[in-house]
Amino acid sequence: MTEPIIRISFIFWVTVVVAALAALGIYKIHQANGSDIPNQPPKAMYVTKILYANVNGTTQHCGWARDPDGDELTVRWTARLGTVKKEGFKHPTKSRQWCTIYTGGKPGWDTVSFHVTDGIIKKPVTRRWSFCVYPDKGFGPPTEKPASCR
Question: What is this structure's pTM?
Answer without folding.
Answer: 0.69
